[in-house]
Amino acid sequence: MTELAWLTIAQASTLLKTKQLSPVEYASALIAHGERHDPHYNAYLRATPELALADARRAEAQIMRGEWRGPFHGVPYGLKDIVDYQGLPTTAHSKILQDSIAQADAVVTQKLRDAGGVFMGKLSTHEFAIGGPSFDLPWPPARNPWNRDHFCGGSSSGSGAATAAGFLPAAIGSDTGGSIRNPAGQCGVVGMKPTYGLVSRRGVVPLSFSLDHLGPLTRTVRDNALMLDVIAGHDAQDPGSANRAAGGYTSELGRDVKGLRIGVIRHFFADDMQADPEMATSIEAALRRFEALGAQVRDITTAPLGEYATCNRVILTSEAFAIHEQWMRERAQDYGALGRERLMAGAFVRAADYVNATRLRRKLADAFHALFSEVDIVITSNSMDPACRIDDPQALEQAYARQSRAPFNLTGSPAISVPTGFSKNGLPLSMQIVGKPFSEALVYRVAHCYEQATGWTQRHPDLV
Amino acid sequence: MTKVDLSIDDVRTMAEGIGMTGLSDGQLQELLRATLASRARRTALRTATLSLADEPAHVFNLVDRSQP
Fold first, then answer.
1. How far apart are CA A183 and CA A457, in angstroms?
2. What are the pLDDT digits (tens) for A406-461?
3. Quick one: which of A216, A212, A153, A143 has its CA closest to A185?
4. Alpha helices in A135-247 (DSSP H)
5. Cα distance between residue A345 and residue A340, in whole Å
6. Coil, helix or strand for A10?
7. Dist. CA A367–CA A213, nearest whole Å
8. What is the pLDDT of residue B61?
9. How far is CA B37 from the centre of its chain?
10. How far is Cα A9 from Cα A4, in angstroms, rounded to an integer?
11. A382, A429 in Cβ contact below 8 A?
12. Where do runs of H (alpha helix) occur along A18-166?
């Protein structure tokens, strides 16, 4: 049973297609695995075993009839609980929305359903994807499968924890200032924030309209590309959706990186902030690995991290408060303290400051995109530190700011978090690989090449 | 504006001005901290580098969204 928990999508898909593994058997094993271990990790906000088994039985019947839908057919997945699944509450991990029943599927949910995926449940998040980890909400925060006393990152906390713990091989997260890549990095899994507009946001509780992205968290790079293939695509009803062809994200997997020009934004983690020594060392080792694989690695410079972070925060808090203003007037007491404080930061941002931040955003993005005339891919840090303890509010607040993800929400670039090893106390380390807009296939190729050379994603936590 | 420029009473008045009239003292403290952090960000925003030609990122063009 436990072995099924660690199957990759690619492995499971082969077994499912050839009828060596039944979708019902697979889903049942993961349900049992989650029921046994999740009480210690709180990755699920709402597990839905009955829905999973119904999906699995349907997939089994289809596969037995020869109606194979593709690599996601019969594969279990979960949704961060800001994503609508028709008939279930979309709570955003908040008392405010705890009884809010989704009237329709989000676009990503519909795409995963159409692909034959097996829906396992709703996953923990930070309140409205910003306020957490918090202990004053209707549900507890998710914990890190590598050490449950530690934070698992957020805000797609349950997506990272559930994937790392083997409760499912794939989950949807959202990312406004790094909320896919943070839990991916802290939990030792792979998390992709795709290009802005590549994945529809329709049917998802917004945090910040112009910065929100949806994307996959998986245990391997190939699985991540497989899931993005399912969920990417134009949506005419999402105003931010990019009207261009999507797919083919596994097409470059297996190609090497010989001659590829890799630019390193070292000042993010060596000057603008100083990364934890183990984190920095793991990134340096990764860069040497790329050199050994034949890539041309050199430093590049962009705007200071603080400039990006400030710009991201002004835009994020302004747009978020616009969404929450009415609830803040009428139901302020129904928020958790952390979420309320972070959301109230947008209450008195001047209009001119918001507009100027969006002007700076364009400048920062244009300058960053211009770097790709000199390099093919960019590598930099993700979190500056391994996961801190979940019961240390000061460390948590510090960790919230010590990251270099927000720049790529501003630029809209595809950015993936990949594991780079483990700290001495067994917590995952990570880096980001970033590409120019819509270059996800190349980003996956580089990430896959590194993954194959190191094998970090083959390790799994010993669960309580 | 520095920390001493904003008091809890100032924040209460500001909150009431936008209809947030029911905040507890603890919630007003949260709003005070949040507003101070927000003002610090305003100071850090590099607006001096902006020229008249620098338009907001969300300025849009009218593409045809009727096509799927």
1. 14
2. 999 999 999 999 999 999 999 999 999 999 999 999 999 999 999 999 999 999 99
3. A153
4. 157-164, 181-187, 221-231
5. 9
6. helix
7. 21
8. 72
9. 10
10. 11
11. no
12. 23-37, 49-64, 107-114, 157-164
Burial class (CB in 10 A: 0-12, 13-18, 19+), A69: middle
Q: Are A124 and A157 in contact (CB under 8 A)?
A: yes
A-chain residues near B58 (CB < 8 A): 210, 358
Residue length of chain A: 464
CB B24 within 8 A of CB A333: yes
Provide the 10 A C-beta neighbour count for residue A462. 8
Residue A270's nearest CA partner among A115, A379, A143 is A379
Q: Show residues of chain A in contact with B63, CB under 8 Å.
A: 243
Diameter of chain B by CA atoms? 55
Contact criterion met (CB below 8 Å) for A306 and A269: no
Integer distance in angstroms from the first to the last C-alpha of chain A? 16
Q: Are B14 and A286 in contact (CB under 8 A)?
A: no
Is-contact A225 A191, C-beta < 8 A? Answer: no
Q: Is A155 designated active site?
A: yes
Name the strand (E) or helix (H) holding A416: strand A415-422
Residue A273 has pLDDT above 70, yes or no: yes
CA dihedral over A218, A224, A229, A231, signed as positive or negative: positive
Q: State ipTM.
A: 0.90
Q: For residues A156 and A182, what is the distance between their CA atoms, to the nearest angstrom?
A: 8
Domain map of chain A by residue range?
Answer: 2-458
* Test mutation, A329, A359, A366, A368, chain B, max B CBs within 10 A: A359
> Which residue(s) pair with A76 in the sheet?
A118
CATH superfamily of A2-458: Amidase signature (AS) domain (3.90.1300.10)
Chain B environment of A369 (Cβ under 8 Å)? none
Both tokens assigned to A153: 């990152």
CB atoms under 10 Å from CB of B51, counted, come to 7
Q: Which pLDDT band, with edges at 50, 70 and 90, does B2 fall under?
A: very low
What does the pLDDT look like over A217-232, one tens digit per residue?
Answer: 999 999 999 999 999 9
Q: What is the pLDDT of residues A147-176, one digit of tens each?
A: 999 999 999 999 999 999 999 999 999 999
Pick from A314, A344, A355: CB nearest B30: A344
